[in-house]
Amino acid sequence: MLEESDEITHCYLLASVTNTLYKQLESCKTAKVILDKLGDMFGGQATLAR
């Protein structure tokens, strides 16, 4: 069940990003890896926006 939820989340995450980000993230195996990479890419920007 958890694997299925991760797969669904993985698909939603990839479907919701731009083509450029998709190409950078498509090799990620799990939703957590995608979220970690996005955090690395944009984490500083989120802090600055607050």
Task: Describe, in short, the structure shown.
With about 50 residues, this protein is mainly α.
What's the structural domain tally? 1
Summed up, the helix count is: 3
How large is the radius of gyration? 12 Å
End-to-end separation in angstroms reads 36 Å
Specify the helix fraction band.
over 70%
Largest sheet: none
Q: What's the count of strands?
A: 0
Percent of sequence in beta strands: under 5%
Order of helices and strands: HHH
Mean pLDDT: 87
- Judged by helices, strands and strand pairing, the structural class is mainly alpha
Shape: globular
Low-pLDDT ranges: none
Describe the model:
With 50 residues, the protein is an all-alpha fold. The protein has one domain. 80% of the residues lie in helices and 0% in strands. It contains 3 helices and no strands. It has helices at 2-15, 19-25, 31-49. Helix 1 packs across helix 3 (31-49). The model has no long low-confidence stretch (mean pLDDT 87).
Protein traits:
3 helices; 50 residues; mainly alpha; 80% helix
SSE inventory with pairings:
Elements lengths: L1 H14 L3 H7 L5 H19 L1
Helix pairs in contact: 1-3
